[in-house]
What we know:
Layout: H1 4-14, E1 19-25, E2 31-37, H2 38-44, E3 47-50, H3 65-71, E4 78-90, E5 98-106, H4 117-130, E6 133-147, H5 175-179, H6 182-194, E7 199-204, E8 210-215, E9 218-219, H7 220-240, E10 243-246, E11 260-268, H8 285-297, H9 302-305, E12 327-329, E13 336-338, E14 348-350, H10 359-376, H11 400-409, H12 411-417, H13 419-437, H14 442-448
Parallel strand pairs: 1-5, 12-13
Antiparallel strand pairs: 1-2, 3-4, 4-5, 6-8, 6-9, 6-10, 6-11, 7-8, 11-14, 13-14
Helix pairs in contact: 4-10, 6-7, 8-10, 11-13
Cofactor: Mg(2+)
Keywords: ATP-binding, Ligase, Magnesium, Nucleotide-binding
Domain GS catalytic: 117-452
Amino acid sequence: MxxxxxxxxxxxxxxxxxxxxxxxxxxxxxxxxxxxxxxKFLDEKxxxxxxxxxxxxxxxxxxxxxxxxxxxxPADIDMFCRPDESAVYLVPWAIEPxxxxxxxxxxxxxxxxxxxxxxxxxxxxxxxxxxxxxxxVAPEMEFYLTKRCDDPDFPLQAPLGRSGRPETGRQSFSxxxxxxxxxxxxxMYDWCEMQDLDLDTLIHExxxxxxxxxxxxxxxxxxxxxxxxxxxxxxxxxLKHNVAATFMAKPITDEPGSAMHLxxxxxxxxxxxNIFSNDDGSMSxxxxxxxxxxxxxxxxxxxxxxxNVNSFRRFLPDTSAPxxxxxxxxxxxxxxxxxDAGPQNRRVENRLxxxxxxxxxxIAASLLCGYIGMVEGVKPSAPVKGRGYERRNLRLPLTIxxxxxxxxxxxxxxxxxxxxxVTAYVAVKRAEHENFKRVISSWEREFLLLSV
Length: 452
Protein backbone atom coordinates (compact mmCIF):
# COMPACT_ATOMS: atom_id res chain seq x y z
CA MET A 1 0.00 0.00 0.00
CA UNK A 2 1.30 3.45 -0.95
CA UNK A 3 1.64 5.78 2.04
CA UNK A 4 1.64 9.56 2.06
CA UNK A 5 5.35 9.46 2.82
CA UNK A 6 5.86 7.31 -0.29
CA UNK A 7 4.01 9.95 -2.31
CA UNK A 8 6.19 12.68 -0.81
CA UNK A 9 9.32 10.65 -1.62
CA UNK A 10 8.18 10.29 -5.23
CA UNK A 11 7.36 14.01 -5.45
CA UNK A 12 10.83 14.98 -4.23
CA UNK A 13 12.61 12.50 -6.50
CA UNK A 14 10.61 13.43 -9.60
CA UNK A 15 11.69 17.04 -9.16
CA UNK A 16 15.28 16.06 -8.31
CA UNK A 17 15.05 17.96 -5.01
CA UNK A 18 18.42 17.98 -3.25
CA UNK A 19 17.55 20.05 -0.17
CA UNK A 20 14.49 20.32 2.04
CA UNK A 21 13.64 23.31 4.24
CA UNK A 22 11.89 21.67 7.21
CA UNK A 23 9.91 24.43 8.88
CA UNK A 24 7.30 25.39 11.43
CA UNK A 25 5.75 28.75 12.26
CA UNK A 26 6.62 30.40 15.56
CA UNK A 27 4.16 32.68 17.36
CA UNK A 28 5.20 35.68 15.28
CA UNK A 29 4.84 33.81 11.98
CA UNK A 30 8.57 33.48 11.36
CA UNK A 31 9.53 30.26 9.58
CA UNK A 32 11.92 28.34 11.84
CA UNK A 33 13.48 24.94 11.33
CA UNK A 34 16.35 23.18 9.57
CA UNK A 35 17.66 22.77 6.03
CA UNK A 36 18.34 19.12 5.35
CA UNK A 37 19.72 17.09 2.43
CA UNK A 38 16.81 15.22 0.86
CA UNK A 39 18.16 11.75 1.70
CA LYS A 40 18.63 12.68 5.35
CA PHE A 41 15.11 14.18 5.45
CA LEU A 42 13.59 10.98 4.06
CA ASP A 43 15.62 8.75 6.39
CA GLU A 44 14.66 10.69 9.52
CA LYS A 45 11.02 11.32 8.46
CA UNK A 46 11.01 14.64 10.31
CA UNK A 47 13.16 16.70 12.64
CA UNK A 48 13.54 17.69 16.25
CA UNK A 49 13.56 21.28 17.49
CA UNK A 50 13.77 22.78 20.99
CA UNK A 51 10.27 23.54 22.23
CA UNK A 52 11.69 26.89 23.35
CA UNK A 53 11.56 28.01 19.69
CA UNK A 54 7.88 28.68 20.37
CA UNK A 55 8.74 31.09 23.20
CA UNK A 56 11.06 33.25 21.11
CA UNK A 57 10.17 36.88 20.55
CA UNK A 58 10.50 38.68 17.24
CA UNK A 59 13.85 40.04 18.48
CA UNK A 60 15.15 36.53 19.25
CA UNK A 61 14.85 36.96 23.01
CA UNK A 62 12.87 34.74 25.36
CA UNK A 63 10.25 35.32 28.02
CA UNK A 64 11.16 35.78 31.69
CA UNK A 65 12.63 32.72 33.40
CA UNK A 66 9.74 32.19 35.83
CA UNK A 67 7.26 31.91 32.95
CA UNK A 68 9.72 30.03 30.73
CA UNK A 69 10.22 27.26 33.29
CA UNK A 70 6.55 27.22 34.21
CA UNK A 71 5.67 26.39 30.60
CA UNK A 72 8.62 24.26 29.49
CA UNK A 73 10.72 21.41 30.81
CA PRO A 74 13.81 22.86 32.61
CA ALA A 75 15.98 20.55 30.50
CA ASP A 76 14.91 22.48 27.34
CA ILE A 77 13.76 19.28 25.65
CA ASP A 78 13.04 18.77 21.99
CA MET A 79 9.67 18.53 20.31
CA PHE A 80 9.14 16.10 17.44
CA CYS A 81 8.29 17.68 14.08
CA ARG A 82 6.63 15.52 11.45
CA PRO A 83 6.18 16.61 7.83
CA ASP A 84 2.68 17.28 6.56
CA GLU A 85 2.73 15.64 3.14
CA SER A 86 0.00 18.00 1.94
CA ALA A 87 2.06 21.11 2.80
CA VAL A 88 5.00 20.76 0.42
CA TYR A 89 6.14 23.65 -1.78
CA LEU A 90 8.95 24.34 -4.22
CA VAL A 91 11.49 27.07 -3.42
CA PRO A 92 11.81 28.66 -6.87
CA TRP A 93 14.44 31.24 -5.87
CA ALA A 94 16.91 28.66 -4.50
CA ILE A 95 20.06 27.88 -6.50
CA GLU A 96 19.80 24.13 -5.86
CA PRO A 97 16.47 22.30 -6.40
CA UNK A 98 14.83 22.88 -3.01
CA UNK A 99 11.47 22.25 -1.37
CA UNK A 100 9.96 23.59 1.83
CA UNK A 101 7.87 21.24 3.94
CA UNK A 102 5.68 22.52 6.76
CA UNK A 103 5.78 20.29 9.84
CA UNK A 104 3.44 19.61 12.74
CA UNK A 105 4.84 19.46 16.26
CA UNK A 106 4.34 16.81 18.95
CA UNK A 107 5.75 15.87 22.34
CA UNK A 108 7.43 12.48 22.84
CA UNK A 109 4.09 10.91 23.77
CA UNK A 110 2.67 12.00 20.42
CA UNK A 111 0.45 14.79 21.78
CA UNK A 112 0.18 18.02 19.72
CA UNK A 113 2.29 20.84 21.15
CA UNK A 114 -0.11 23.40 22.65
CA UNK A 115 2.04 26.43 21.78
CA UNK A 116 2.12 25.62 18.06
CA UNK A 117 0.10 28.12 15.96
CA UNK A 118 -0.69 25.45 13.36
CA UNK A 119 -1.92 23.06 16.05
CA UNK A 120 -4.11 25.82 17.49
CA UNK A 121 -5.81 26.33 14.12
CA UNK A 122 -6.33 22.57 13.82
CA UNK A 123 -7.91 22.60 17.28
CA UNK A 124 -10.42 25.27 16.22
CA UNK A 125 -11.19 23.45 12.96
CA UNK A 126 -11.97 20.30 14.97
CA UNK A 127 -14.57 22.26 16.96
CA UNK A 128 -16.32 22.98 13.68
CA UNK A 129 -15.91 19.42 12.38
CA UNK A 130 -17.47 18.02 15.56
CA UNK A 131 -20.59 20.06 14.73
CA UNK A 132 -20.62 18.84 11.12
CA UNK A 133 -19.38 22.21 9.85
CA UNK A 134 -16.45 23.27 7.69
CA UNK A 135 -15.23 26.89 7.56
CA UNK A 136 -14.35 28.43 4.21
CA VAL A 137 -11.98 31.40 4.20
CA ALA A 138 -10.58 33.82 1.63
CA PRO A 139 -7.71 36.05 2.84
CA GLU A 140 -6.66 39.36 1.32
CA MET A 141 -3.04 40.36 1.99
CA GLU A 142 -1.92 43.99 1.80
CA PHE A 143 1.75 45.01 1.74
CA TYR A 144 4.09 47.80 0.69
CA LEU A 145 6.98 47.79 -1.74
CA THR A 146 9.71 50.18 -0.56
CA LYS A 147 13.24 51.18 -1.34
CA ARG A 148 15.73 48.93 0.40
CA CYS A 149 16.96 50.62 3.55
CA ASP A 150 19.68 49.43 5.94
CA ASP A 151 19.14 52.15 8.58
CA PRO A 152 16.10 51.46 10.80
CA ASP A 153 16.07 55.14 11.89
CA PHE A 154 15.50 56.27 8.31
CA PRO A 155 11.84 56.51 7.16
CA LEU A 156 10.82 54.12 4.39
CA GLN A 157 10.41 55.55 0.90
CA ALA A 158 8.48 54.51 -2.19
CA PRO A 159 10.66 52.56 -4.66
CA LEU A 160 11.38 53.55 -8.24
CA GLY A 161 9.16 51.84 -10.79
CA ARG A 162 9.87 51.09 -14.47
CA SER A 163 9.51 54.80 -15.26
CA GLY A 164 12.42 55.59 -12.95
CA ARG A 165 10.19 57.74 -10.74
CA PRO A 166 8.72 57.07 -7.28
CA GLU A 167 4.96 57.01 -6.96
CA THR A 168 3.20 60.10 -5.62
CA GLY A 169 -0.37 60.76 -4.51
CA ARG A 170 -3.17 58.26 -4.02
CA GLN A 171 -3.28 55.58 -6.73
CA SER A 172 -6.07 53.28 -5.51
CA PHE A 173 -6.89 50.58 -8.08
CA SER A 174 -4.57 52.16 -10.65
CA UNK A 175 -3.53 49.65 -13.32
CA UNK A 176 -0.65 51.83 -14.52
CA UNK A 177 0.72 52.25 -10.98
CA UNK A 178 0.69 48.46 -10.49
CA UNK A 179 2.30 48.00 -13.93
CA UNK A 180 5.28 50.04 -12.73
CA UNK A 181 6.40 46.81 -11.02
CA UNK A 182 5.42 44.33 -13.76
CA UNK A 183 8.76 42.47 -13.85
CA UNK A 184 8.59 41.88 -10.09
CA UNK A 185 4.98 40.68 -10.16
CA UNK A 186 5.61 38.44 -13.18
CA UNK A 187 8.27 36.65 -11.13
CA MET A 188 5.99 36.55 -8.10
CA TYR A 189 3.10 35.03 -10.09
CA ASP A 190 5.41 32.53 -11.82
CA TRP A 191 6.84 31.41 -8.49
CA CYS A 192 3.41 31.20 -6.83
CA GLU A 193 2.14 29.11 -9.75
CA MET A 194 5.07 26.73 -9.33
CA GLN A 195 4.10 26.46 -5.66
CA ASP A 196 0.38 25.90 -6.42
CA LEU A 197 -0.59 28.94 -4.35
CA ASP A 198 -4.21 29.79 -5.06
CA LEU A 199 -3.85 33.49 -5.87
CA ASP A 200 -6.63 35.53 -7.38
CA THR A 201 -6.37 39.26 -8.11
CA LEU A 202 -3.64 41.88 -7.69
CA ILE A 203 -4.85 45.34 -6.67
CA HIS A 204 -3.02 48.61 -6.12
CA GLU A 205 -4.10 49.96 -2.74
CA UNK A 206 -4.18 53.55 -1.44
CA UNK A 207 -0.62 54.01 -0.23
CA UNK A 208 2.42 54.60 -2.49
CA UNK A 209 3.42 51.20 -3.91
CA UNK A 210 0.93 49.53 -1.56
CA UNK A 211 -0.52 46.37 -3.08
CA UNK A 212 -3.09 43.73 -2.24
CA UNK A 213 -3.10 40.07 -3.26
CA UNK A 214 -6.37 38.16 -2.89
CA UNK A 215 -6.50 34.41 -2.37
CA UNK A 216 -9.34 32.25 -3.69
CA UNK A 217 -11.64 30.85 -1.01
CA UNK A 218 -10.85 27.43 0.38
CA UNK A 219 -9.75 25.30 3.32
CA UNK A 220 -8.60 27.36 6.33
CA UNK A 221 -5.48 25.32 7.15
CA UNK A 222 -4.30 25.17 3.53
CA UNK A 223 -4.71 28.93 3.14
CA UNK A 224 -2.85 29.68 6.38
CA UNK A 225 0.01 27.54 5.02
CA UNK A 226 -0.17 29.41 1.72
CA UNK A 227 0.04 32.82 3.40
CA UNK A 228 3.16 31.71 5.29
CA UNK A 229 4.72 30.62 1.99
CA UNK A 230 3.45 33.68 0.08
CA UNK A 231 5.07 36.12 2.51
CA UNK A 232 8.45 34.44 1.97
CA UNK A 233 7.90 34.36 -1.78
CA UNK A 234 6.87 38.01 -2.01
CA UNK A 235 9.90 39.15 -0.03
CA UNK A 236 12.22 37.08 -2.24
CA UNK A 237 10.68 38.41 -5.47
CA UNK A 238 11.10 41.96 -4.17
CA LEU A 239 14.74 41.38 -3.24
CA LYS A 240 15.45 39.97 -6.71
CA HIS A 241 14.32 43.33 -8.11
CA ASN A 242 16.28 45.37 -5.56
CA VAL A 243 13.29 46.57 -3.53
CA ALA A 244 11.78 45.38 -0.26
CA ALA A 245 8.32 44.03 0.54
CA THR A 246 6.99 44.66 4.03
CA PHE A 247 3.92 43.30 5.80
CA MET A 248 4.21 45.71 8.73
CA ALA A 249 0.78 46.97 9.75
CA LYS A 250 1.81 50.64 9.55
CA PRO A 251 5.21 51.03 7.90
CA ILE A 252 4.95 54.65 6.71
CA THR A 253 3.83 57.72 8.67
CA ASP A 254 0.56 59.28 7.45
CA GLU A 255 -0.04 56.49 4.93
CA PRO A 256 -2.71 53.75 5.16
CA GLY A 257 -1.89 50.59 7.08
CA SER A 258 -1.81 47.06 5.68
CA ALA A 259 -4.44 44.51 6.64
CA MET A 260 -5.12 40.81 6.30
CA HIS A 261 -8.85 40.87 5.59
CA LEU A 262 -10.48 37.52 6.29
CA UNK A 263 -13.65 36.51 4.46
CA UNK A 264 -15.27 33.59 6.26
CA UNK A 265 -18.33 31.41 5.82
CA UNK A 266 -19.33 27.94 7.04
CA UNK A 267 -20.76 25.02 5.09
CA UNK A 268 -22.60 21.92 6.27
CA UNK A 269 -20.22 19.01 5.61
CA UNK A 270 -23.01 16.61 4.57
CA UNK A 271 -24.97 18.89 2.26
CA UNK A 272 -22.33 21.41 1.17
CA UNK A 273 -24.82 24.21 1.84
CA ASN A 274 -23.79 27.51 3.40
CA ILE A 275 -25.27 27.50 6.90
CA PHE A 276 -25.23 31.31 6.90
CA SER A 277 -28.32 31.28 4.61
CA ASN A 278 -31.85 29.98 5.13
CA ASP A 279 -33.65 28.00 2.43
CA ASP A 280 -35.35 31.19 1.24
CA GLY A 281 -31.96 32.90 0.83
CA SER A 282 -32.23 35.15 3.89
CA MET A 283 -29.64 35.50 6.67
CA SER A 284 -29.78 32.57 9.07
CA UNK A 285 -29.78 32.79 12.85
CA UNK A 286 -26.40 31.03 12.82
CA UNK A 287 -25.00 33.80 10.61
CA UNK A 288 -26.21 36.51 12.96
CA UNK A 289 -24.85 34.61 15.97
CA UNK A 290 -21.51 34.18 14.16
CA UNK A 291 -21.34 37.97 13.79
CA UNK A 292 -22.42 38.36 17.42
CA UNK A 293 -19.54 36.14 18.49
CA UNK A 294 -17.07 38.17 16.45
CA UNK A 295 -18.36 41.36 18.06
CA UNK A 296 -18.21 39.97 21.58
CA UNK A 297 -14.88 38.15 21.48
CA UNK A 298 -12.62 39.99 19.00
CA UNK A 299 -11.88 42.61 21.72
CA UNK A 300 -10.77 39.74 23.99
CA UNK A 301 -8.30 38.26 21.46
CA UNK A 302 -7.20 41.42 19.67
CA UNK A 303 -3.47 40.61 20.14
CA UNK A 304 -3.95 37.66 17.76
CA UNK A 305 -5.06 40.13 15.07
CA UNK A 306 -2.84 43.04 16.13
CA UNK A 307 0.27 41.40 17.62
CA ASN A 308 2.73 44.31 17.74
CA VAL A 309 2.92 47.87 19.06
CA ASN A 310 3.03 48.96 15.41
CA SER A 311 -0.26 47.12 14.75
CA PHE A 312 -2.20 49.65 16.83
CA ARG A 313 -0.93 52.57 14.74
CA ARG A 314 -3.21 51.22 12.00
CA PHE A 315 -6.39 51.64 14.05
CA LEU A 316 -7.04 55.30 13.41
CA PRO A 317 -10.27 56.90 12.12
CA ASP A 318 -10.33 57.97 8.46
CA THR A 319 -7.33 55.84 7.50
CA SER A 320 -9.24 53.06 5.68
CA ALA A 321 -8.89 50.89 8.78
CA PRO A 322 -11.63 49.76 11.16
CA UNK A 323 -11.81 51.23 14.65
CA UNK A 324 -14.76 49.19 15.88
CA UNK A 325 -16.48 45.80 15.84
CA UNK A 326 -19.67 47.11 14.27
CA UNK A 327 -21.11 45.27 11.27
CA UNK A 328 -22.93 46.32 8.14
CA UNK A 329 -23.76 45.23 4.62
CA UNK A 330 -21.43 46.53 1.89
CA UNK A 331 -19.86 48.89 4.43
CA UNK A 332 -16.08 49.31 4.57
CA UNK A 333 -16.18 51.73 7.53
CA UNK A 334 -16.99 48.95 10.02
CA UNK A 335 -14.80 46.15 11.31
CA UNK A 336 -17.16 43.40 10.12
CA UNK A 337 -18.35 43.87 6.54
CA UNK A 338 -20.96 41.66 4.91
CA UNK A 339 -20.30 41.77 1.15
CA ASP A 340 -23.21 41.64 -1.28
CA ALA A 341 -23.40 37.97 -2.36
CA GLY A 342 -25.85 35.20 -3.17
CA PRO A 343 -27.09 32.79 -0.47
CA GLN A 344 -24.38 30.15 -1.11
CA ASN A 345 -21.63 32.78 -0.95
CA ARG A 346 -22.91 34.69 2.08
CA ARG A 347 -19.95 35.56 4.29
CA VAL A 348 -18.56 38.10 6.70
CA GLU A 349 -15.28 39.94 6.16
CA ASN A 350 -13.24 40.52 9.30
CA ARG A 351 -11.28 43.71 8.50
CA LEU A 352 -9.45 44.00 11.84
CA UNK A 353 -6.50 41.65 11.32
CA UNK A 354 -3.24 43.30 10.29
CA UNK A 355 -0.92 42.00 7.59
CA UNK A 356 1.62 41.48 10.38
CA UNK A 357 -0.54 38.89 12.15
CA UNK A 358 0.43 35.22 12.21
CA UNK A 359 -1.99 33.72 9.63
CA UNK A 360 -2.62 30.55 11.67
CA UNK A 361 -3.47 32.53 14.78
CA UNK A 362 -5.52 35.24 13.06
CA ILE A 363 -7.63 32.70 11.15
CA ALA A 364 -8.01 30.52 14.25
CA ALA A 365 -9.07 33.50 16.38
CA SER A 366 -11.53 34.81 13.80
CA LEU A 367 -13.17 31.41 13.34
CA LEU A 368 -13.20 30.75 17.09
CA CYS A 369 -15.00 34.02 17.88
CA GLY A 370 -17.67 33.16 15.32
CA TYR A 371 -17.93 29.59 16.58
CA ILE A 372 -18.50 30.67 20.18
CA GLY A 373 -21.16 33.06 18.94
CA MET A 374 -22.96 30.23 17.16
CA VAL A 375 -22.86 27.74 20.04
CA GLU A 376 -23.77 30.38 22.65
CA GLY A 377 -26.40 32.13 20.52
CA VAL A 378 -24.76 35.57 20.85
CA LYS A 379 -26.95 38.25 19.27
CA PRO A 380 -25.25 40.99 17.23
CA SER A 381 -25.96 44.69 17.50
CA ALA A 382 -28.01 46.39 14.79
CA PRO A 383 -26.14 46.75 11.50
CA VAL A 384 -24.57 50.12 10.76
CA LYS A 385 -25.89 52.03 7.79
CA GLY A 386 -23.70 54.80 6.43
CA ARG A 387 -20.44 56.01 7.89
CA GLY A 388 -19.10 54.00 10.82
CA TYR A 389 -15.65 55.51 11.48
CA GLU A 390 -16.94 57.80 14.23
CA ARG A 391 -18.19 54.75 16.13
CA ARG A 392 -14.86 54.23 17.83
CA ASN A 393 -16.22 52.38 20.80
CA LEU A 394 -14.58 51.28 24.00
CA ARG A 395 -15.02 47.62 23.14
CA LEU A 396 -11.66 47.59 21.36
CA PRO A 397 -8.49 48.05 23.44
CA LEU A 398 -6.46 51.00 22.17
CA THR A 399 -2.93 49.75 22.98
CA ILE A 400 -1.08 46.45 22.90
CA UNK A 401 -0.68 46.61 26.70
CA UNK A 402 -4.43 46.98 27.28
CA UNK A 403 -5.19 44.29 24.71
CA UNK A 404 -2.87 41.78 26.39
CA UNK A 405 -4.52 42.45 29.76
CA UNK A 406 -7.94 41.77 28.22
CA UNK A 407 -6.78 38.54 26.60
CA UNK A 408 -5.10 37.35 29.81
CA UNK A 409 -8.25 37.96 31.86
CA UNK A 410 -10.82 36.35 29.53
CA UNK A 411 -11.72 32.91 30.89
CA UNK A 412 -14.15 32.20 28.04
CA UNK A 413 -11.30 32.38 25.55
CA UNK A 414 -8.80 30.46 27.71
CA UNK A 415 -11.30 27.60 27.85
CA UNK A 416 -10.81 27.12 24.09
CA UNK A 417 -7.25 28.33 23.48
CA UNK A 418 -5.86 26.69 26.62
CA UNK A 419 -4.26 28.39 29.63
CA UNK A 420 -0.77 27.38 28.50
CA UNK A 421 -1.13 29.00 25.10
CA VAL A 422 -2.61 32.22 26.50
CA THR A 423 0.14 32.50 29.13
CA ALA A 424 2.86 31.88 26.54
CA TYR A 425 1.49 34.25 23.91
CA VAL A 426 0.91 37.10 26.35
CA ALA A 427 4.39 36.60 27.85
CA VAL A 428 6.08 36.68 24.42
CA LYS A 429 4.24 39.85 23.41
CA ARG A 430 5.01 41.53 26.73
CA ALA A 431 8.69 40.68 26.35
CA GLU A 432 8.64 42.24 22.87
CA HIS A 433 6.93 45.35 24.19
CA GLU A 434 9.48 45.73 26.99
CA ASN A 435 12.19 45.58 24.32
CA PHE A 436 10.38 48.26 22.30
CA LYS A 437 10.09 50.59 25.30
CA ARG A 438 13.88 50.63 25.68
CA VAL A 439 14.31 52.29 22.26
CA ILE A 440 14.20 56.11 22.04
CA SER A 441 12.15 57.18 19.02
CA SER A 442 12.85 59.91 16.48
CA TRP A 443 9.67 61.69 17.67
CA GLU A 444 11.14 62.03 21.16
CA ARG A 445 14.40 63.42 19.77
CA GLU A 446 12.57 65.80 17.45
CA PHE A 447 10.10 67.32 19.91
CA LEU A 448 11.64 66.82 23.35
CA LEU A 449 15.38 67.12 22.86
CA LEU A 450 15.61 70.93 23.04
CA SER A 451 12.15 71.79 24.30
CA VAL A 452 11.65 70.23 27.71
